[in-house]
Amino acid sequence: xxxxxxxxxxxxxxxxxxxxxxxxxxxxxxxxxxxxxxxxxxxxxxxxxxxxxxxxxxxxxxxxxxxxxxxxxxxxxxxxxxxxxxxxxxxxxxxxxxxxxxxxxxxxxxxxxxxxxxxxxxxxxxxxxxxxxxxxxxxxxxxxxxxxxxxxxxxxxxxxxxxxxxxxxxxxxxxxxxxxxxxxxxxxxxxxxxxxxxxxxxxxxxxxxxxxxxxxxxxxxxxxxxxxxxxxxxxxxxxxxxxxxxxxxxxxxxxxxxxxxxxxxxxxxxxxxxxxxxxxxxxxxxxxxxxxxxxxxxxxxxxxxxxxxxxxxxxxxxxxxxxxxxxxxxxxxxxxxxxxxxxxxxxxxxxxxxxxxxxxxxxxxxxxxxxxxxxxxxxxxxxxxxxxxxxxxxxxxxxxxxxxxxxxxxxxxxxxxxxxxxxxxxxxxxxxxxxxxxxxxxxxxxxxxxxx
Length: 452
Ligand code: PFF
Prior knowledge:
binds 4-fluoro-L-phenylalanine
């Protein structure tokens, strides 16, 4: 089929903003601070940055190169750069992983919608509140979280239906700067609170005594999730990049924005939590239980400031989740469109219906269906486990093998260096990292997670 009707981003900046939008998501705002809290603060931060440099960035460049070279959906793209056509299985795995992730990502995103509404009606005010019970009650309700998830997924569908340029690009250009402003304002407000210094110190003063082999592995896993690696998204978006865009520069920009936003999210959460003597809790509870508590205590004397803070924070969370979900939905949408000749509109609608249906099961599994488990995991946790802990590392490993060992070196070099005009000096280093460092690192994460 002709590539003219695929759509493309209008500028290099648009490509970077959209891709950064997919990278910046719930993973930055709740998962990163939580991993940091568990793994020795600044020591984790240093290791995380090393992971990004050593294998996150090289793999991102690989996905970009494969996607832009092919100018097609991710499934067809792998295998078009040399080697057997069977390597397209990497892309198909990416499509499947992205789609399955969207099923439960939509549920968590629905929670952010509910908390935004609660913030809007000043729902965190009042003494002696039990935020744990309130969250559990909400998440296990059979109706309300499902409605929130459906609302979120329909908004996401609306953006995708508006097309690559009119929807994804326009949405990211609007939401990403907003997100950036919100997070800076929130970080500054938090750091200025009395008692916040302990949190800042925790974040920037490394304690290497807390570093264990599992710290290393957690940092690697986080960098994978946060950069949206091996879910077909980077590859798909790169197929909309312009030929003159510099892939290495784009990758450095996206990774920098993603890391900066993760650090700022931690700068909001730790100083805020420390200033009211709350130890940062784990996982989703940090955002939906600890933080409402923090908002309530921190701003007890200044309710208007507290109201604005909570509202901005949950708005930030919804926007971050939306720019990520857009990427997740675009991957199967363009796949169905190009491989099965289904019109973009119907392909996006079909994928959304599928994700909502499975998402309902994920949502109910936290409440009324919680007794249905496999390997002791409910449906929601099972999806999280299978995608994040198994499919992602397998996909990442295969991408490293494909671009490190299998694909045509000349095609790869031409794509990464724009036919020898840019990044020529660092191509050798990129190839070394993707050939040796990335596969070994990913294998280490995978084996560790499976053993656990
Ligand atoms: N990187 C996103 C986050 O940190 O929340 C998650 C994600 C979004 C992964 C989009 C993959 C993707 F295609």
